[in-house]
Amino acid sequence: MARILIAEDDANLRMLLTMRLKGRYEVVAASDGDAALKRYEEGGIDLIITDLMMPGTDGYALVESIRSLGHSTPVIMLTAKDGITDKGRGFAVGTDDYMTKPVNFEELTWRIDALLRRSRIANEGRITIGDVVVDKQSFTVTRGDEVYELPTKEFQLLYLLLSYPGKIFTKENILDSVWGYSSESDEYTVRTHINRLRNKFEKFPEFEIATIRGVGYKAVINK
Question: What is the three-class DSSP state of 204?
Answer without folding.
Answer: coil
